[in-house]
Hints:
Blueprint: E1 7-10, H1 14-25, E2 30-34, H2 37-46, E3 62-65, E4 77-80, H3 87-94, E5 103-106, H4 119-122, E6 129-133, H5 138-142, E7 147-152, H6 158-164, E8 169-174, H7 177-199, H8 203-224, H9 235-244, H10 251-260, H11 265-269, H12 276-285, H13 296-306, H14 311-319
Parallel strand pairs: 1-2, 1-4, 2-3, 4-5, 5-6, 7-8
Antiparallel strand pairs: 6-7
Helix pairs in contact: 7-8, 7-9, 7-10, 7-12, 7-13, 12-13
Amino acid sequence: MQFSRPIHVIGAGAFGSALAHTWHRAGRDVTLWCRDAEQASLLADSGQNTKVPSCPPLKGIKAGALANFESTGAGACIVLAVKAQVQSDVFAAIKPGLSEETAVVTASKGFANPSGALLSESLDPAGGLSILSGPSFAQDLFENRPAALTLATEAADESLIHALSTPSFRLYASMDTVGVQICGAMKNIIAIACGCSDGMGFGASARTALMTRGLREIERVIDAYSGDQKTAAGLAGVGDLALTCQDRQSRNFSFGFELGQGHSAADLLQNGTTVEGATAAGYLRGSARVASLDLPISTAVADLVEGAESPAKIVEKLLTRRLAADV
């Protein structure tokens, strides 16, 4: 078991910083790489991450500017914690410094491009791409609260599971990298719908209905991408869905709530906040693999984000759909 395996976290946003904090606290050898050189300098000097106000001091964690990334040893682990849509470019920049034995893990959640490609389809690490996903808010990790997530690998990799697990950060193994990626991308889409419902004052019953029917949409898309539908019943699926769809800590839920309060998506997205579900909804709609599927909630969110219809009109369309069996 390689507990001393060096971990390089790429991306010093909230979740990347939270992962670095969690692993450093457990005694792991962690380096946090920032796309912003000034942010990297401040982190290296004082441990302060001013771009993430809730982040505690990260003293003792090595930090560097991503532009200065050079190379890692064969036993190292790279964890990509950048936005899904920029992950390919970020990985291309660091790939020359990686050995064939370097483990590459993504903690990003979304689709890679407007055609609905998976992140694993846009990256080509020699050993394959592992997927870290599941119910975990950055603030909970900053405050050292326990969390359980899924780590999906293309082949059972016990050393990687042990390298990234800590007493308060428990990882469960999966080999369904496709299903875990779909769950991570789509739970954000469903969270926007749930937030919008709450913003319109529809209450817990409507929210629960959206979560449950949204889970069915996730299962359909997993099947269309040739993943395992049973993954939707685990931490990466229903677990992350339950967390993200019911709490204002979720940026996607909060974004949806503001839509339900009458704000426009364009105005809300102008402030620079990452709302992965807003992009994922459009990218999913652009995927040829789901063209024949019935995905009313995901389609409604794409319409909301594009400003094609008002929340009230979309609700009317959803409620007047033909009746169907609960399957």
